[in-house]
Amino acid sequence: MKDTKARIAAGLERAFAENGFSEPNIDSLREAAGVSLRTLYKYMPSREEMVLSALEHRHRRYMQLVFDDLPSDGTPVLHAVLDCVAHWMSKEASHGCLFHAAVASAPRDERLRALLAKHKSEVAEKASEISGLQNRQGEIALIVEGLMQAWPLYGEAATRSAKKLCDTLVNDAPA
Predict the structure, then answer these.
(1) What is the mean pLDDT of residues 119-136?
(2) Which of 9, 74, 92, 152 is geometrically suited to a Cys-Cys bond with 53, CB 3.0 to 4.6 A?
(3) DSSP characters for 92-148?
């Protein structure tokens, strides 16, 4: 059951990332999930549940890609995180953040807004924790979000700028 739900969520995530939230109809979502309509509705009884499940799946994948297996070769940890974010943007999110797109498609949906807040705060908390900058979550969130928003326009130049800002943050941190 868990494998089926994860497989459905992965397919839905791909469909929403490729087509947005308003375009895919239920039949194309069912096809992307690789299951029958009955099975799709068994695991996700509404379109809203499909969106939430896809985003929760994306959150897990993002956290794993950005924070697992960071190099131990002396690269500053925030630089490594920003490289992972840039890699994610180039491979997974060339149109921008899927969480923001979901909230933009349904701005009054409190569950989506809460999931967006959870995702962004967990990213900032994890990055501040591993960098030793525990009280700087806001600044780190701003740098990561800035990179994500600037990436579609500036690509690697945005990554270089984000790294410079991180260096300033680290150098200004109390010893």
Answers:
(1) 93
(2) 9
(3) H-TT--HHHHHHHHSTT-HHHHHHHHHHHHHHHHHHHHHHT-TT-HHHHHHHHHHHH
